[in-house]
Amino acid sequence: MMLDFDVNGDRVSVDCAQDAMLIDVLREDLGLTGAKRSCDMQICGACTVLVDDEPVSSCTTLAYDVAQKSVETIEGMDEGGVLSELQQRFLDAGALQCGFCTPGIVMTVESLLRENPRPTREDVVHQLDGSLCRCTGYVSIIEAVSQVARASANKESKD
Amino acid sequence: MSQFTIASPTDVGGVLNLLQEEPEDTFVYAGGTELMAAVKEGMLQPRFLVDLKRLPTLKEVTFTEAGARVGATVTYRHLLGMTDLLSRFPILGQVMRQVGNVRVRTSGTPVGNICFGEPHSDVATVLSLLGCEVTIAGESVRRATLDDFIVDAFETDLGPQEIVTDICIPALGPNVRCGYATFRMTERPAVAVAAAVETDGDSLKSIEVVVGAIGPKPQRIDGLSALHGTSLADAGARLEEAAYQVASSVGEVLDEGELSEEYRRHLSGHLFIQAAQQAITQARRELGVPQ
Question: What value of ipTM does the predicted structure carry?
């Protein structure tokens, strides 16, 4: 079937099988290898991408189901090589080590920040329940997001 | 070569026509969080999928004095954003916000959950407590209580040429407050208890309890009448006694996993205390009975 959808702001048209999973269309057809297949059963979050601003497990989402929708991956987060604020805070806070889970975690947190620019620590922990990281122990990740939330608060109070 | 072909009809008639063609090899889906997992593991091998997400009536949530009607394809995420639903049924918000993980809540649906008949279900447990009814479309439209609809583990009353179009949740009585407690080691609950406390003045008029995730389907627990008529101030202290009753009243316990039957029964009593205490505490706070 021909599948038409937006990826990171660009309209694409992919010829794929009806039983294709979104992760395979992204990685194999579109070369977007940021999303990782890890548990392959929706538990770990390494494959997380956004569909219409909401996080989904691309390993278990039919590509068919994103027709005419807006898909965003980690590759769309920077602007011409300039990291987003969230990405930069991850670097500054040391919120990644091997980096394998990082694209999924960044997209998951990005979704939260779009909905709530000033999440509490509890909001962040709740959002990340279902994103597994073997390296960092999560504290630095939560710190990175807290930095973004604080910066939002400062911006608001200056306006 | 695709394992299956997918159709996206736009009305219930279209869905039913497709189900009539090859009923044993055709599966309907919305979020597909359970279906696609089962397909990937080879447990289900559909040749035809019917996507329900283009049916407008299945996306609706409506309210009447009698209660709420939730369409089959409405996601947890959508429901969690509905303050009018959550204000009528606070317990639903409490339960749904911790179902699975954020990605499951984006794509998954309560109706899909109950149609799959997964025994380890928070949603089935709380909807059973709330007296949920299921609307089924097939040769005709029929209704069934959730308790009748779920027959056994992974087995529902749904025929191969039928679909669930919506569920109806009866309005909570004005003096009813609910609590919920669950124990989970992975993404699904190992044991879950939902409790509803009805008050009369500042005494506990009645308590209803459903224990889920422990057996093949949610189980209503009878015989807690000893608590009926207790003052709210005293009720908390009597829960431990009632907990033994709950634990021993649980019927069939699924034989699976690392947790023994004995431990899971023990948990059900413990979680009952937590769930009932939540409802009692809320009642005391709202009725001004000192804690």
Answer: 0.96
